[in-house]
């Protein structure tokens, strides 16, 4: 199965909100014909209605891929509408946090090819990272196809086991929100230190964006890049004493936040 098969047989999106739209935008940009896409969503966005895709129309008989991008809480209502595609060679590619492969097999049939994916919102600018893992019915060809599709929205990593998905969700799925909050917190602290709000926000955004890009591009590790900023007994040194404090610093806080996310993902997985 390849991209030509997707164009010929069709791609169905169940739910096209923030994540579904980010992914669809990447696929349309990379050449998937809009007429090969069917979206099932009761509240199509203005953006979606301008893309030339089929919206809430009669669905194709045997699409190559169904992207499941509804909220986990909507799954029980939404998924049964696509049960006829189960136990066939339509691949179900799910981005829903906490919905296990086993749940799909129960709802759609044990022979259904299912690939679980955890993308993130930088997908909207082609800078996402998506982790994938499939069931036994997801052939090597199907995994390659999902990998190719997802490369249109950024990097792709393959997991050894579905059990890694909670931690992946807590790091890269939710992670953009942590970084956006870091920007908010830096800008607020800049204001408190005397800067105008717009200037504080510009400095915070550009600093996080630039540092993130440097961390990805540089040969040096993030640790070395941090050391490069930190003059002995200088200004950064004093700030890092606070942020790297072993009792209430950033690592302790991040560990607690990630654990809370992992726990919530596991609650969703257990229904
Ligand atoms: N937003 C994010 O950063 C990430 C989200 N995800 C996962 O993506 C999924 C979607 O999340 P978002 O896009 O953020 O939510 P969203 O609320 O933006 O999108 C959900 C879409 O589903 C539609 N919908 C509701 N009921 C439906 C039904 N019965 N049939 C078809 N469509 C229906 C809604 O109209 C909406 O457009 C979730 O399962 C979430 O766990 C995964 C990774 C990152
Ligand atoms: O907050 C959520 O449940 C989803 C999962 C990863 C990002 N957003």
Automatic annotation (TrEMBL):
<keyword id="KW-0028">Amino-acid biosynthesis</keyword>
<comment type="pathway">
    <text>Amino-acid biosynthesis; L-proline biosynthesis; L-proline from L-glutamate 5-semialdehyde: step 1/1.</text>
</comment>
<feature type="binding site">
    <location>
        <position position="56"/>
    </location>
    <ligand>
        <name>NADPH</name>
    </ligand>
</feature>
<dbReference type="InterPro" id="IPR028939">
    <property type="entry name" value="P5C_Rdtase_cat_N"/>
</dbReference>
<keyword id="KW-0521">NADP</keyword>
<feature type="binding site">
    <location>
        <begin position="69"/>
        <end position="72"/>
    </location>
    <ligand>
        <name>NADP(+)</name>
    </ligand>
</feature>
<dbReference type="InterPro" id="IPR008927">
    <property type="entry name" value="6-PGluconate_DH-like_C_sf"/>
</dbReference>
<keyword id="KW-0641">Proline biosynthesis</keyword>
<dbReference type="GO" id="GO:0005737">
    <property type="term" value="C:cytoplasm"/>
</dbReference>
<keyword id="KW-0560">Oxidoreductase</keyword>
<comment type="similarity">
    <text>Belongs to the pyrroline-5-carboxylate reductase family.</text>
</comment>
<dbReference type="InterPro" id="IPR036291">
    <property type="entry name" value="NAD(P)-bd_dom_sf"/>
</dbReference>
<dbReference type="InterPro" id="IPR000304">
    <property type="entry name" value="Pyrroline-COOH_reductase"/>
</dbReference>
<dbReference type="InterPro" id="IPR029036">
    <property type="entry name" value="P5CR_dimer"/>
</dbReference>
<feature type="domain" description="Pyrroline-5-carboxylate reductase catalytic N-terminal">
    <location>
        <begin position="12"/>
        <end position="98"/>
    </location>
</feature>
<dbReference type="Pfam" id="PF14748">
    <property type="entry name" value="P5CR_dimer"/>
</dbReference>
<feature type="domain" description="Pyrroline-5-carboxylate reductase dimerisation">
    <location>
        <begin position="162"/>
        <end position="268"/>
    </location>
</feature>
<protein>
    <recommendedName>
        <fullName>Pyrroline-5-carboxylate reductase</fullName>
        <ecNumber>1.5.1.2</ecNumber>
    </recommendedName>
</protein>
<keyword id="KW-0963">Cytoplasm</keyword>
<comment type="function">
    <text>Catalyzes the reduction of 1-pyrroline-5-carboxylate (PCA) to L-proline.</text>
</comment>
<dbReference type="GO" id="GO:0004735">
    <property type="term" value="F:pyrroline-5-carboxylate reductase activity"/>
</dbReference>
<dbReference type="GO" id="GO:0055129">
    <property type="term" value="P:L-proline biosynthetic process"/>
</dbReference>
<feature type="binding site">
    <location>
        <begin position="14"/>
        <end position="19"/>
    </location>
    <ligand>
        <name>NADP(+)</name>
    </ligand>
</feature>
<dbReference type="Pfam" id="PF03807">
    <property type="entry name" value="F420_oxidored"/>
</dbReference>
């Amino acid at each position: 199965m390849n991209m030509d098969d997707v164009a010929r047989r069709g791609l169905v999106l169940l739910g096209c909100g923030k994540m579904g739209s980010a992914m669809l935008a990447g696929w349309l940009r990379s050449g998937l014909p809009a007429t090969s896409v069917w979206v099932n969503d009761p509240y199509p966005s203005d953006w979606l209605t301008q893309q030339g895709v089929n919206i809430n129309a009669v669905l194709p008989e045997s699409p190559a891929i169904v992207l499941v991008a509804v909220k986990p809480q909507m799954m029980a209502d939404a998924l049964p509408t696509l049960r006829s595609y189960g136990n066939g060679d339509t691949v179900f590619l799910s981005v829903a946090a906490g919905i296990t492969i086993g749940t799909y097999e129960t709802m759609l049939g044990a022979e259904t090819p299912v690939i679980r994916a955890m993308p993130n919102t930088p997908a909207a600018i082609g800078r996402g990272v998506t982790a994938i893992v499939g069931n036994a019915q997801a052939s090597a060809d199907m995994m390659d196809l999902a990998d190719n599709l997802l490369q249109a929205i950024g990097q792709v990593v393959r997991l050894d086991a579905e059990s890694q998905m909670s931690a992946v969700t807590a790091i890269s799925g939710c992670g953009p929100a942590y970084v956006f909050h870091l920007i908010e917190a830096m800008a607020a602290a800049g204001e408190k230190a005397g800067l105008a709000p717009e200037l504080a926000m510009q400095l915070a955004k550009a600093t996080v964006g630039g540092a993130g890009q440097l961390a990805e591009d540089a040969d040096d590790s993030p640790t070395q890049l941090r050391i490069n900023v930190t003059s002995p007994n200088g200004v950064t040194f004093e700030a890092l004493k606070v942020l790297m404090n072993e009792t209430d610093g950033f690592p302790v806080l991040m560990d607690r936040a990630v654990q809370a996310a992992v726990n919530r993902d596991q609650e969703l997985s257990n229904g």
